């Protein structure tokens, strides 16, 4: 089950991508996000919002990533939702932006829900976007 939806997924419904924690590789994650959202028949504006949200989440994580880190991205597809979890090893003492920050407000405005956690030297941002009804 995915953390945010509580809906079961199978291994066929989960995509893992690992890229260097470098802004030059974020296009790969944006493209994968758009492709999976299109597979779920998200509207074009929903796809663009999710691409922007993934980009913003990655930017937050890149700011606190260790040198030569890898950005791990897990996409979980359910019938009407896409959950994206991005994880990176963090430098000692790093913290994620507070939920009152502008960056966090952007994430919550562009997705159905967003969550963050930092434990054991790793930070994860999870984004859930449900397809709008009527499709």
TrEMBL record:
Give the protein's recorded name.
Serine/threonine-protein kinase RsbW
In Gene Ontology terms, what is one molecular function of this protein? kinase activity
* Organism (species): Micromonospora auratinigra
User: What keywords are annotated for this sequence in UniProt?
Assistant: Kinase, Transferase
Q: Where is the Histidine kinase/HSP90-like ATPase domain?
A: 20-87
Q: Does the keyword Secreted apply?
A: no
Can you tell which superkingdom this protein's organism belongs to? Bacteria
InterPro entries for the chain: HATPase_C_sf, HATPase_dom
